[in-house]
Amino acid sequence: xxxxxxxxxxxxxxxxxxxxxxxxxxxxxxxxxxxxxxxxxxxxxxxxxxxxxxxxxxxxxxxxxxxxxxxxxxxxxxxxxxxxxxxxxxxxxxxxxxxxxxxxxxxxxxxxxxxxxxxxxxxxxxxxxxxxxxxxxxxxxxxxxxxxxxxxxxxxxxxxxxxxxxxxxxxxxxxxxxxxxxxxxxxxxxxxxxxxxxxxxxxxxxxxxxxxxxxxxxxxxxxxxxxxxxxxxxxxxxxxxxxxxxxxxxxxxxxxxxxxxxxxxxxxxxxxxxxxxxxxxxxxxxxxxxxxxxxxxxxxxxxxxxxxxxxxxxxxxxxxxxxxxxxxxxxxxxxxxxxxxxxxxxxxxxxxxxxxxxxxxxxxxxxxxxxxxxxxxxxxxxxxxxxxxxxxxxxxxxxxxxxxxxxxxxxxxxxxxxxxxxxxxxxxxxxxxxxxxxx
Amino acid sequence: xxxxxxxxxxxxxxxxxxxxxxxxxxxxxxxxxxxxxxxxxxxxxxxxxxxxxxxxxxxxxxxxxxxxxxxxxxxxxxxxxxxxxxxxxxxxxxxxxxxxxxxxxxxxxxxxxxxxxxxxxxxxxxxxxxxxxxxxxxxxxxxxxxxxxxxxxxxxxxxxxxxxxxxxxxxxxxxxxxxxxxxxxxxxxxxxxxxxxxxxxxxxxxxxxxxxxxxxxxxxxxxxxxxxxxxxxxxxxxxxxxxxxxxxxxxxxxxxx
Amino acid sequence: xxxxxxxxxxxxxxxxxxxxxxxxxxxxxxxxxxxxxxxxxxxxxxxxxxxxxxxxxxxxxxxxxxxxxxxxxxxxxxxxxxxxxxxxxxxxxxxxxxxxxxxxxxxxxxxxxxxxxxxxxxxxxxxxxxxxxxxxxxxxxxxxxxxxxxxxxxxxxxxxxxxxxxxxxxxxxxxxxxxxxxxxxxxxxxxxxxxxxxxxxxxxxxxxxxxxxxxxxxxxxxxxxxxxxxxxxxxxxxxxxxxxxxxxxxxxxxxxxxxxxxxxxxxxxxxxxxxxxxxxxxxxxxxxxxxxxxxxxxxxxxxxxxxxxxxxxxxxxxxxxxxxxxxxxxxxxxxxxxxxxxxxxxxxxxxxxxxxxxxxxxxxxxxxxxxxxxxxxxxxxxxxxxxxxxxxxxxxxxxxxxxxxxxxxxxxxxxxxxxxxxxxxxxxxxxxxxxxxxxxxxxxxxxxxxxxxxxxxxxxxxxxxxxxxxxxxxxxxxxxxxxxx
Lengths: 439, 257, 485
Hints:
The complex is a heterotrimer. By secondary structure, chain A is an alpha/beta fold. Chain A has one domain (about 5-385). Chain A contains eight helices and 21 strands. Chain B is of the alpha/beta class. Chain B is globular. By secondary structure, chain C is of the alpha/beta class. Chain C has one domain (about 1-480). Chain C has helices spanning about 1-10, 15-20, 40-50, 55-65, 105-115, 145-150, 160-165, 165-170, 185-190, 430-440, 445-460, 465-480; strands at about 30, 90-95, 130-135, 140, 155, 195-200, 210-215, 225-230, 235-245, 250-255, 255-260, 265-275, 285-295, 305-310, 315-320, 320-325, 330-340, 345-355, 360-370, 375-380, 390-400, 405-415, 420-430. In chain C, strands 5, 6, 8, 10, 11, 13, 15, 16, 18, 20 and 22 form an eleven-stranded mixed beta sheet that branches. In chain C, strands 4-3-7-9-12-14-17-19-21-23 form a ten-stranded mixed beta sheet, covered by helices on one side. In chain C, β3 and β4 form a beta hairpin. In chain C, α7 crosses α8. The two termini of chain C are about 25 Å apart. Mean pLDDT of chain C is about 85; it is low at about 1-20 and about 120-125. The interface of A and C includes residues 351, 363 and 378 of A.
């Protein structure tokens, strides 16, 4: 494991070395500096291997890096791409495709300066101080992982979302990612800030056609300032040949509340990480995950609930199902720092294993060195309760229907944590479809 | 009464929790053989007073004294106070998994009376008799303390502890809350067995109902952290009839003056 | 109570000694090998024991394997590098005899074990228990032998078993923990000097508890005992292990291997009260307790239970596990791990479900006080063949004071949809509410704490044999006395 033994190939993901850094000089200096600093870190960190604790169950070699080439940097396009079914439900819609990105300010929120939604390139000119502060900012409570430093250095689409203090944005921002060009590495980077006493909702949707091979590397940073409420929901519905490695960072300040929800339904292989810091008294975080690995899907998730302050609350609920030859991994840590008293942390991971051949691993962890606190976690693995199944069937429901109903019931608790009914309905539909296919 | 050391006297007691003042100068005296009732609306500081008397570290005393058996007990640990003969029947008795009722009672009795003075055999016999008296199932003696007990069972367990530890002054913190009439009768029966010339009792309650079973000679009404009014049994009837508003009005005026 | 009092009188009345009352040293003449480890030392150990060639070869093979291995460092423990060449791998009291039946034991040794509460005299209070007593590298006495032999039970020191029951030992030794299993197991396989061997033949229910008492005495020696328990079809045995060591300011290594084998319908109950010297308040001295314990439920309906009260040792690295191969077999792990001062404990279990309808239960209670680190590390693995497997895990941690750590690292892997696993865990400070309630009944803070802690541990202590359970509670109370307030 000494770095000296590693060759250049081991240090860099193919296609991502110094020569592939954006070099045309058109980018603001601030971003170029950030990229350079990130690249330096990226060059130092060794490639993770299956020997690293975090990658023991998802060998990095399962990602066929050398089959992909970096996607070009995305520029704004003036003609609005195809609209999506939910566009009307949001104040601002950002559409990201292989051709470029488009920001639709249908409700005039941006024009009225109630909200900022800009590419990182624009924001670097308009809000340089904020970017300095929040890009790779305080939310990064740990050394970023290798792939995250890659995102920091090579992101090909960056977005900055900001709500000014005391502004309530109820409908919020939708970001739709649709990628169709095979063999590409797409690298989105999002920084979102809800300023003091504001309220913001962000929804994201990831899509690609089923047969297109694609690699997504992503990073997101969310900041809820004092008294703010920030809701972030992402719906990952990549096609069956898409690979994804993503890392999220969440920071909640005094009296703030963050509601972070992640639905992982698509993709061939996903490795997702979230770190959430409830950083000041009375900050609250709700982290919710729903995942469903069927066919040959492999979904690996890890979470960190960091209580870096006294009087903080975090609540994590991850529910998953595995079917066919699907394999899911959930690995969680609750970490309370010394003197973080009156901490209340909760972590629950429930797994449904729907047939033989599927596999679920659960590693819920607690690391506690504070005095006056309460942490609890739980994990369950198992199939549907045969008694429940029997009960429903005795009332005349066919088995397939009964199973579907019970799986839906299992997930409902976490589905309910999403703010938008249309998104909830979409997830239910997707889950129903996954369960419905005969075993 | 002046000149003699008081049996139990609260003098100008002030206390707060988390920087919020709750008791703002409570004065109250209980003599041996007397039963006092303390009533008052929600949030007036009744439970705080009970906890401060027993020495719950959650509350900070900022001024005043509590004299018991001639000593100011405010500097004492809760267990010292208990060994001196003070007893609090908790509003919400705490469950302690893994400790049997028998073991707990024996430990407490050893602490109160001295280890050599409590012989296990006769002691447990007495506890069983008391349980009988309180119409408790004998199997309780081997169960974990308050663990999985119903509300009524917990309250009876409090009274059983009182009978066992034979305090000279007991404070009952809303022991009647949530009890049905039958449980209330049993609990009162237990309390009345304690009443005698050497025993002082302070019954804190939100409802007059219990006062039909445990007859107080004195009634105090607590409001905004102070005793707003004191009186005899006739005051109970007055409160029963007219509620607290008239006292608040009168008390408010007095404060203004 | 009176027993404790007499023990106190035997020693000085300094506070430190009372805190660890087993910290005294016995003056005996010893037969030692030089420090260090090489093939000659291993041959010398083997020769001293009069072992057959196969055993010597077995050891050498393990040693060669060990040389290629690296010390594991994934546990949440921190200690300076161990110099394996600076340890004495063999030290025995000269007059110990050869692990006989307890007659003619050196009176100094007999006195030592009296002092530890383990009278070698069979008429004494341990009449319900047969004891094998291991002093540094050798077994000095095994009681109750004849009574057991009548039923075909073999209970003797490992060295003796290798000489007298070579075929049995050869058949089972290393079959659950192979010499190359891990770094410490390999080291143990190379240098183990003694330990206990128990064999319960088909259909026999062992009439008394079997027990081994381990005592490290010599200054620079490590202890590397090897225990092997085989319960044939339908057999039952309850086995108890206890350990102490003198108080010294250097660290001593204890790397034991315990293997349990349960054939069809057999049941083995293994209980440990581990009270090795834990070092002083500054973390100086104490035993490094790096132990591999594993049971194999080989036959259908077999059952293996591990119950442990871990209250000593500077560092503990120990995961008593069960391989559940036989259909309907049952594995259990009940553990109390108490740490104070600067102790570090990384302990837990592995339940590997292979056979159908296998069940496992894990109850772990960790208590950390002062500046200690207490980690639970557990794995529940359900393989595709383990149809209808069940696991229930409950691990709770209690923190006393604000400088201690409690960590929980469970791993659950399920590869069949017919299995159900449940895991629950909590970490909390000792409850202020509970403390106030108990104290309001006149019980002082120290007693109140110990009462609550004992209640917290009750689910585990009730699994210990009665006499041991009383002992464990007393030990815990003694340790708490110095950690509260």
